[in-house]
Amino acid sequence: MGQFSDDGLWWWDSTAWVATAEIVLPQLPPTEFEQSGRLGPARAHLRKSGWLNWQNDAGCALDWIAMIPYVLVTLPALRDYRLWTLEQLSLATAYLLGPNEPVLAGEATVMPQEWMGDSSKRDLAVVVTAAHVLIFRIDFLDGQPRWIVLVAHPTEVKMEVRSWVEAGFRGDALTVSRGDAQWLIRGAPGVWKPELVVGAWRTGSAQPLRAPGN
Questions:
Q1: What letter would DSSP give residue 110?
Q2: Residue 210 three-state SS
């Protein structure tokens, strides 16, 4: 499994084996999105539209009016956050697996915060490569993928996109399951594309595992 042990519980850091659960990713280099200067405006737009989350949670009768700034301001900012996250996930995956196993698809929880703030809610992210499925946990303080929740072969997990009704009326959801464990990654409608992740996983999960030494 690349630089990971076959069971995904250990990672070779070029000098020693490190338990996957103890990996803390270092600060990643700035992404192209950050270098373009677009991150600041995206945060500012989410800060200005933060009151919409309070209103929607309260079931305000003026929700239809709130949809105007949500569509024009919040959604574009969330799409920017998604792009930034995908670039970060590519850097994090390259750090762990090297340049020869690029990301085929990935997604993260990208939802408006449930309180006034300048960032979106991003707690978990999933990446699919030709040989791995990785789930990252996002550092709340700086928004970077920081810890690893799961490393597995595509054949060892299951993925499913659940509609906003099935997911409890809180946006669509992508579920990743391995045995009895399950992880839920949510996305705002019109922002994310979980079907790309499922498509990449299906391609990988159709490949038989190689026997040791082959």
A1: B
A2: coil
Is residue 185 helix, strand or coil? Answer: strand
* Percent composition of the chain: helix, strand, coil (DSSP 3-state, to 5): 35, 25, 40
Question: Do the bridges between strand 120-121 and strand 111-112 make them parallel or antiparallel, or are there none, so unpaired?
Answer: antiparallel
Residue 55 in contact with residue 63, Cβ under 8 Å?
A: yes
Cα–Cα distance, 30 to 87 (Å, whole number): 9
* CA 99 – CA 22 distance, rounded (Å): 22
In whole angstroms, give the CA distance from residue 79 to residue 187: 10
- Angle between helical axes of 39-48 and 75-97 (0-180°, round to 10): 140
pLDDT tens for each residue of 16-67: 999 999 999 999 998 887 778 776 666 665 665 554 444 444 444 334 344 4
Q: What is the C-alpha end-to-end distance of the chain, expressed in Å?
A: 12
> 169 with 186: CB under 8 angstroms?
no
Q: Which residues pair with 112 in a beta bridge?
A: 120
Q: Where do we find the tokens 């600041």?
A: 40
- Quote the pTM value: 0.78
How are beta strands 120-121 and 158-162 bridged, if at all?
A: unpaired
Least confident segment among 61-65, 150-154, 171-175: 61-65
Placement of tokens 């919409």 in the chain? 52
Distances (CA, A) of 176 to 112, 155, 160, 164, 200: 22, 12, 7, 16, 13
